[in-house]
Structures are given as C-alpha cells and as structure tokens.
Amino acid sequence: MAHWFHRNPFKATAVQNFDVRKIAMKNDFSKVISDLRTARTNLLALFNDPLASPEKMDTISTEYFALVQGLFEVPEGLEGKNTAETSQSTEESSSKKEESGKEDKPVGAKITLKTFFKFKWTQTLFVGKPPLVEDDAEFDFINMGVNIALWYTKHAAKLSAQAEIKMEDAKEIHSCMKKAAGIFKEFRDNHVGKLSNPPEKCSDMDSSVLDCYIMCCQAEAQEVTIARAVEMKHKASLIAGLANETSKYFQMADDHLKSLDQGIVGKWRKYLQLKQSFYKSYALCYHGGALLAEEKCGLSIRCLQDSTDMFAKTTALCKEYMATKGAGSTIRPQEHEFYRNFEKDLNRKFEKSKSENGFIYHQKVPPVAPNIDFQATHGLVDPTPYSVPEKSSAWTSGVYAGFNVSKNVQNDKKFKPEKEQDVKPIKEPDIKVTKDNGCVIS
C-alpha cells in the first residue's frame, strides 16, 4: 500500500567533526566529544536502513541524545568558565559576511559550549532552499529528533510494501506510527521553545508543521486499525465510526497548515485533503451498508449516494495533488488497487441498496442526508508517550573542567572555526509494492 501514501523527504545535515582541539585541555573531554561524534555518525548512517529494527534505532538514538545534551545542559557554575566573547573587528566581520553570504556572530556575542559548533540542516518542506544553519547544539538535537520520527514512518512504509503482511508486521507498522507521533509531540512540547532563535516559518521546528505531523501519524495509524477491522469482518458500524474519525484526523492535520505559505505546504495539504475525503466516503459507504442491514433502505441509498459523490471529489483531489508542486514523492492513489477495490465495493453496495429498495422496501430517499452521528468507541489512536533519554553520566564535572571555550577564542587571529561541510541528501528508501497487500499504511 506504500504508493497510496505521500511522504516528505528525510532531513539532511552536514558532517559535524566536533573539532575541539582549540578548546580541549584534558583527554577526558576529548573522549566524550569523540563518543558524541561517533554516535552522531552512526545515527545518520542508520537513516539509510529502513529495515533496521526499532530496537536498534532506539539504542543508537539513545546514545546520541544522551551525549549531545551535555553540550547544552551544562551544570550551574561551570558555564561561566567556558564562555568567551567575540571581539572581531567590524571590518573583518563585514568582509567575512560578504565572502560567505551569511551573518556572522555579532561582536560581543557570548560563545558557549552550546553555541561553539555550527550545525546545518535541510527542512522537509524547503524544496530548492538552502539548509538552515545555527550555532546551537539544541538545533542539531531537535532536527535529529524530527528525523528519527520520520525514520519510523519510513520503516513502517518498508514493512507495508512486503508481498505478504503478517500479523506481527501489522502490529509493528501500527506501533511505529504511534511512536513517530509521540516523538514529534515530545520535541514540539518540550524542546523547540529552548532554541536560541525562533523557528523559521514552515521549517520542521514550526509548531504548525509539527502539529500536522503528529495528527497525520495518528490518522495513518488508524488506517491500520481500519484495515484490521475489515479483515476481521467487524461490524460495519464500527468500521464506519473508525473511518469517520480518521477523516476528521486528516482534516485537523490539514487545518494546521492553513496559515502557512501555500507554495511550500500546498502539495502536502492536497494529500491530507484527498485522504480526508476518501475516509469520509469510506465511512458513508460502511454506514450505508449497516443501514441496509437494518432495512433502512432509503437512508442507506442517501448515504451511499453521498459516499459516491465524496469519492468523486477524492478522485478530483488526487489529480490536483499530482499536479501540485512541492516536497515529497508524487503518488498516483487513484490508480492503486486498493483505491479501485473500494470503488468496486462502493458501487456494489449502492446498486444492491437501490435494487432492494425497488423490489422490496419502496422507501423514500431523503433529499438531504440526516445528521448521522457515527463516532468510533474503539480503536482510536493516541501518540505513544516518548521522553528523551537522560543526559549521559559521562558528562562529569571533571569532563567539563577539561575544556575552556575562551582558550584561543578571545584571540581572534588564532581562532579558526571549522570549515563548513556540504550537505548530502539521505537516500530515500526504495519501496516497491509487488501486489496489493491490503495494508493501509506507509
């Protein structure tokens, strides 16, 4: 089912060497920094493996999170020893700005361990725009967290593209989407507000973008629940309720992007809108089937007519989505077997309802569908709570005493910042669907 789902690309980042030769005074500090460099490198490499186990991702990401926090969670009383003030001349600063095209640290700015290293990250929605660059270790910490959440969605995508989905695979897909939602929520609630500079609009640290990711992950996890309910032949009323709530989730996800630059978020919004429309049609279809089983044929026809109209709207949105430029891979949902199978099922139920009403019930079809309330009472998805691992115990007071930011920083002629590294895109997972497996998750 992977070709039924839009996915924004992985975030890419420049290599960070964590060069501390000019501030390290003792080997124990250099050792912790070396471990951080290795942990970051290992985590970035793991993004290239969508079939790695979630357990491995947890282990590798924990190592990075635990170590990187030592750069900005400095114990009280130690930060002052490791602070320097820039004293570069205005002429030198202007010259460097002209050469690089970027604003340098303002004269007199405080340099701490948190701001000593420069980090460069692309943003999932910024097509053709340069990476964002910040002298802020928390900037790296948050962008990496977003990428880890994205990995869980792409891991689920890879599993869903298998020729045969086992029960354990379906459970893992469902779990991954809930965990991704929890990770996005953790960074939105507890970390973005601590950045040195406010998040740029439409970036992955924008609260509206994170809100959308959270709601989208919840909605797509519920799609797994719907697929399971259909497979197990649960009551049509239960499936209708789940589909109706899922449609609402996609609508809420779309609403979070309304106030943003439509040239940036437009394509993503079309995806969310087509999914909202599809699951509204899905809900009406199953509700119409349930009404027919209750011999309420007139109401059934009305629901199935509305479902058919909503499905036609979905098909139009699919075409609009394909024609809209923006981030993410372009999918052709209306050509997918899952989409076509639902269309056949909808047409079959609609024809059956009209036929039985003509031969048996002779009920009047309401001109407008009544206000039908079919809320789900089971199967709704919440984000799996996620907490960032605690700072590594390797960051002892002795380690902090082993470096001095002011060493060779106050003397501008000796201080040379690390050479900026290029950003190489992370390879997106190659997801090929061999046949329709009925799993509705990416």
| Low-confidence blocks of residues | 88-102, 434-442
* Beta-strand content: under 5%
Overall structural class, as computed from helix and strand content, comes to mainly alpha
The tally of strands reads: 4
Q: Main attributes?
A:
442 residues; mainly alpha; two-stranded antiparallel sheet; 11 helices; 4 strands
Describe the structure.
The chain is mainly α. Helix content is 51%, strand content 2%. It has helices at residues 27-46, 54-68, 90-100, 137-160, 167-190, 207-231, 236-255, 262-293, 297-323, 337-361, 397-400, and strands at residues 84-85, 110-111, 119-121, 132-134. The strands form two sheets. It has a two-stranded antiparallel ribbon with strand order 1-2. Helix 8 (262-293) packs antiparallel against helix 9 (297-323) and helix 9 (297-323) packs antiparallel against helix 10 (337-361).
What's the layout of helices and strands?
Elements lengths: L26 H20 L7 H15 L15 E2 L4 H11 L9 E2 L7 E3 L10 E3 L2 H24 L6 H24 L16 H25 L4 H20 L6 H32 L3 H27 L13 H25 L35 H4 L42
Antiparallel strand pairs: 1-2, 3-4
Helix pairs in contact: 1-2, 2-4, 4-5, 5-6, 6-7, 7-8, 8-9, 8-10, 9-10
